Amino acid sequence: MGKNNQGTIKDIQKISEEVYSVKIYAPTVDEILPGQYISILCEGLTFRRPFSVSDFDNHIITVLIKKRGKGTEYILSRKVGSSIEFSAPLGNVFSVENKKTLLIGAGIGAAPLFYLNKKLKELKVKTFFAAGFLSKDDIIVTPHPTLSRKGRGEYDFVSTDDGSNGNKGSICDYLEKLIAEFKPEKIVSCAPRPVLKIVAQTAQQHGLDCEICMEKVMACGIGVCRGCVIQLMQGDRVINKTVCKDGPVFNGKEVVWQ
Amino acid sequence: MGKNNQGTIKDIQKISEEVYSVKIYAPTVDEILPGQYISILCEGLTFRRPFSVSDFDNHIITVLIKKRGKGTEYILSRKVGSSIEFSAPLGNVFSVENKKTLLIGAGIGAAPLFYLNKKLKELKVKTFFAAGFLSKDDIIVTPHPTLSRKGRGEYDFVSTDDGSNGNKGSICDYLEKLIAEFKPEKIVSCAPRPVLKIVAQTAQQHGLDCEICMEKVMACGIGVCRGCVIQLMQGDRVINKTVCKDGPVFNGKEVVWQ
Amino acid sequence: MAVKTLDLSVEINGFEMKNPIITASGTYGYNNEFDVFCDVKALGAIVTKGITLEPRSGNEGERIFETTGGMINRIGLENIGIEAFLKEKLPVLNKCGIDFILNIAGNTPEDYIKLAQIAQKNNIKAIELNVSCPNVQHGCIEFGTNKQTLYELVQMVRKNYEHCLIVKLSPNVTSAEEIAEAAQNGGADAVSAINTVRGMGVKLDFLNGRFKKTTVSGGLSGQCIKPVALSFVDRISKVIDIPIIAIGGITSFEDVLEFFSVGAKAVQIGTANFTHPNAAEKLVNDLKKFMIQYNFSNLSELQQAVKGV
Amino acid sequence: MAVKTLDLSVEINGFEMKNPIITASGTYGYNNEFDVFCDVKALGAIVTKGITLEPRSGNEGERIFETTGGMINRIGLENIGIEAFLKEKLPVLNKCGIDFILNIAGNTPEDYIKLAQIAQKNNIKAIELNVSCPNVQHGCIEFGTNKQTLYELVQMVRKNYEHCLIVKLSPNVTSAEEIAEAAQNGGADAVSAINTVRGMGVKLDFLNGRFKKTTVSGGLSGQCIKPVALSFVDRISKVIDIPIIAIGGITSFEDVLEFFSVGAKAVQIGTANFTHPNAAEKLVNDLKKFMIQYNFSNLSELQQAVKGV
Ligand SMILES: Cc1cc2nc3c(=O)[nH]c(=O)nc-3n(C[C@H](O)[C@H](O)[C@H](O)COP(=O)(O)OP(=O)(O)OC[C@H]3O[C@@H](n4cnc5c(N)ncnc54)[C@H](O)[C@@H]3O)c2cc1C
Ligand SMILES: Cc1cc2nc3c(=O)[nH]c(=O)nc-3n(C[C@H](O)[C@H](O)[C@H](O)COP(=O)(O)OP(=O)(O)OC[C@H]3O[C@@H](n4cnc5c(N)ncnc54)[C@H](O)[C@@H]3O)c2cc1C
Ligand SMILES: Cc1cc2nc3c(=O)[nH]c(=O)nc-3n(C[C@H](O)[C@H](O)[C@H](O)COP(=O)(O)O)c2cc1C
Ligand SMILES: Cc1cc2nc3c(=O)[nH]c(=O)nc-3n(C[C@H](O)[C@H](O)[C@H](O)COP(=O)(O)O)c2cc1C
Ligand code: FES
Ligand code: FES
Predict the structure, then answer these.
(1) D37 touching chain A per CB within 8 A
(2) Do you find a cis peptide bond into D194, omega within 30 degrees of 0?
(3) Tens digit of pLDDT for each residue in D252-264?
(4) Taking the model in full, what pTM does it have?
(5) A101-215, what's its fold?
């Protein structure tokens, strides 16, 4: 028991063109690890809405929310101080190990990588955080980045499709270069599906470990409804895994890309 | 064209235990007469919610709203300054004529009578405004009553079920007395159905004109869906009339009480 | 560059509509009542409230009930009857230039035939057979749930009416396909689907230790039934060739596109008229805007593009 | 004054449930998965995910789709199969003291019979026949929409299973009454109703002048179908005598009372478990609180009071 929680919204701040940082005080949540997510009850909607945790510290959960439809609008229209109901922690975790790690984010996909990066750095694991965005106004910078490199916050490398900040082009265009220069042992990525696919394939070509964080519309969040399955190739068998419980983090090698 | 309007909420004030006064600035509404109502769009709900107009002045519509379910909660949770969509003006009107008029309200039913009372007084028609409530905290007093009689606002007579303010008992208990003392030519009432029935029958016994304001769940608000019909006895025929368009004001003599 | 003319028109057996946005029977009155909210003549057509041979006073008791995402109605076909319609409403329709479809209902096949004959005689260009109203004791729904009965009814009406004959289908059947085929085989020019879904609303009040119960058993409509309607239209579009006019929860322009994508040629707007009384006119405008912006010059081009994917 | 003991129990052919709040098949897993959210053994029972003879991997493509007031699913009966159930899940159910109903589905009458025999042999005290799942190509739904086929199927299962036999009915039929009677006549101890309503979700994206379409055709569930379920239960309660377990959009305690008022003896909670993962346990508590506050000492007393009005 205990995965259903009542929290209080402590802070909502706009941090890019469409993304907001939302801080929730959650007295009943003791631990959330990088890769895990929370699922928020939105009034009038059947499905709770899942969001990766982008920081967790002393019962304060930070999620970065991109405005999309009714659910995100509901959450972002709540007043600071109002209560909010959510399930947490849900899902599996990024493995935290002493391997030189290249983090690849794209758009809102950067969200869970902030938390992972922080944890890895605490453990003195070498990381390189690269992220791609559409344009300079879309760059997601957490409210109080520990580092600030010309408006690029904690990123070690930024690309924008239009070149308005950092390097011009998709983050995928720079994958080879980043691998060549940083020489990672492992890549971790959260991004739209097409980007994930390229990252996973590139990692495989270079024989690197690869963890990717997937998305799928969810109902139950705990693996029972079988609504969010993806296919993994394990050995020579294709098997169903749920993004909500077996994931959202998967071994990039195993995912079957349809 | 023009019955669908966009307005702005100018003010929301709690005016009794469960009732709030809501002021809406409605630039596209030029005239609303006593007895008419507006019907407010509430997000996520199929039916607009009807509310009698309790004052109208220079494009400012005042409605008094009792908190009930989702619709009223939605309206009352809106921020001052936010926009609101509604149909107006809807329904027929109280007849304004030079007859000594006894106004009988009960609970939130007092709402439209404030506006009628104001209009009648402007025309120097003699009125006597009596209203019944459950208890003193339920007495609805408009934000800035022109008269204040010991917390009873504009009422000439108040009864409360528990006797905590004014006379003890239901307003119906005082009907005979009020008629005997004020000697009206006409009674106008808005109240829950059982009260209306007693008022209508009492008026008939005394041979007085009687107008009553009825309620019914509504869908279209303009008489086309036939969802809100009540039966009237006209001559010796029973006919259907819509509360939304033919009403909400009816001749007390004609209503068929089921 | 020359401005392309925008062709939104839909034609079914000689019945011309300027666009595919129609308002559904029972939700829009008889003629121009909604002019207080929007420009009725800008619509493709309106479908009149269901008309019977004789006037009807409808059901007693509570008639409407709000539900999650929709409503239930048991109006019971209250209407002024065909005679009053011809005398009082038809002239207004003609005067205002409102294209309309006469929705007719009856207890017996003879009722339908007589109404069709009257429509024929009065040069009414389109009728919609309500064989699917769950709110009346006899007739009506029974025709709509049995394929043989429906086939025979449509055939008889067809013999008496030469203009656009639309059959409105009930979703309350085991096989959508069979019932749609029956309508087509009987000679319908088009089907419209869906009518309301059987539903019941219950309201309980608990007062002084006792329950007070109010029930409204009738037809469910509104956004909550959109998935039911999409599924129904999708299935019948695979078995019939005549045009399908989609109905069920349609509120937004996205909804309209969704129904085009499963094969609808036109759509009817019902319950949404209550929530947004200018919904229908807005849909016409949204459709025009979209087509201009993305360079579709006629409706079937757009419908092909949405369907073809 | 002595504290009255509160009796919420429901018994159907020897199957004892401590209260009438059950969780619906497919929404609650196989055993104690929901313990992370609430106390599963506090519930009257859980119904397992639909189990087939062999494991199934379910449908490819998108499987769930949110709609206004509900959702559509086309899971396609992904399940671990009866053998794995007996080996992995049954021990957990027994160990945790969770009362359960085994939901079974098959392609042929033989599948059902075999599953019933296995249930009988393993002393499983209640089974629910899923004859109404709209999400698989063959079998299942066909049994649930034809009264003769259903009658025969139930009869055959009955001969092979002596404990509590529940038949789960599909709302996608022309006559609710006939199908419920068929289940009763076949020898069911109870019926549960309703399974999901046929529905379809469409999502269109318009990108670079082209439409991209995703569709999810399956079963509609959630609050939006509550009126359909109320109507269905109301109608069948007038023609059958065996207990009815109501399902469809039940979320709040008021919903539970509404279904009692139309004749339900117990209820199942499905989609609401997703929105409020502790919904079912909360309903048990709400029910208890209400009965204590208003002095109802046993369930049927309350059910009579709500129904009797
Ligand atoms: C494990 C997981 C972690 C996530 N983390 C984050 C996060 O940290 N920050 C964030 O902003 N978003 C995150 N998302 C996506 C987020 O859940 C959706 O944006 C949100 O549910 C949309 O809800 P809505 O009601 O606003 O939009 P809807 O009206 O539901 O949908 C609007 C649009 O968003 C798309 N969408 C809806 N749900 C998803 C989904 N699950 N995945 C992808 N697209 C979707 C829809 O297809 C639609 O086009 C995550 C999703 C998952 C599964
Ligand atoms: C012509 C007219 C004028 C009205 N004027 C006022 C007014 O000035 N101030 C005011 O507070 N209310 C007024 N009402 C009632 C008001 O419309 C309802 O209280 C409101 O619609 C309830 O909406 P809800 O979503 O909050 O409650 P719901 O969840 O819809 O209902 C909550 C409770 O209120 C009851 N209720 C709902 N609608 C009505 C109705 N139309 N009549 C009676 N009971 C209803 C329900 O049965 C239920 O028990 C008026 C109604 C009509 C028809
Ligand atoms: C109040 C009301 C009255 C209706 N009356 C009729 C009618 O007279 N004839 C008919 O064929 N359909 C009638 N319908 C059904 C609608 O035309 C339409 O088929 C149904 O409501 C589904 O569409 P919607 O979800 O857009 O409302 C009525 C519906 C409502 C809500
Ligand atoms: C994701 C999902 C999976 C389901 N799987 C099954 C199943 O395996 N067997 C079955 O009989 N019903 C299944 N159902 C139907 C539910 O048990 C229930 O009958 C239906 O959802 C209506 O109830 P609700 O509105 O409370 O969800 C499933 C429903 C959902 C939403
Ligand atoms: S959301 Fe239910 S299994 Fe993943
Ligand atoms: S609400 Fe439609 S006729 Fe009154």
Answers:
(1) yes
(2) yes
(3) 999 999 999 999 9
(4) 0.95
(5) Rossmann fold (3.40.50)
